[in-house]
Please model this.
Amino acid sequence: MSSQRMAETLGFFQAWLRSPLRVAAIAPSGRALARLITSEISPDIGPVIELGPGTGAFTRALIARGVRPADLALIEFGSEFAVALQARFPAARTLWMDAARLDTVELFGGAPAGAVVSGLPLLSITPRKVRAILMGAFGKMRPEGAFYQFTYGPRCPVPPRLLAPLGLEAERIGGTLANLPPAAVYRIRRSTVQARDRSELPGL
Ligand SMILES: C[S@@+](CC[C@H](N)C(=O)[O-])C[C@H]1O[C@@H](n2cnc3c(N)ncnc32)[C@H](O)[C@@H]1O
Model:
């Protein structure tokens, strides 16, 4: 591990000691999870919003997939992370704010995003706030845009009773054992988009 990564891991652990519920993991996500959560993202998808980037594990993977840093908005509530992200990714727009207030800011000059990548600890966030986060995120995306969320749990961290009233559905896109702890990734989309995709399948 490079000395920069070691410093990031130590900083992450210290942030967890200070705010265990907000940080909700003792170490940054590993590369396998970062590759998985960004696996459906390419530069032509348009701007990408990242929620809860922490030390930037997913940010680096997004850039490795060709997303231009200028097409990234990094929404981070932890001041220790926000300051470091700003220094590490100066061409991206880092906002030190609560992701539940996404509807109050204008991003990318008003252009809609193609995807949202979330490292938020949704299981330790109240359902009311999760709803606000989803509404803000989908309000900033194109109709076919997708919200990618990882979890250490056995199912999508946003239950159908929260998704359905918002017209959303979740689908597991994969899992990785090469993360500590093992994790899975869900794609949350508007139900109408999924219905259209199904109607395009042969035989339906
Ligand atoms: C589990 S860590 C994930 C960090 C990084 N994405 C990774 O995978 O290594 C959760 C991150 O979400 C941030 N966070 C928690 N609640 C937030 C909120 N309401 N708005 C924005 N960021 C938040 C934390 O500060 C932390 O950086």
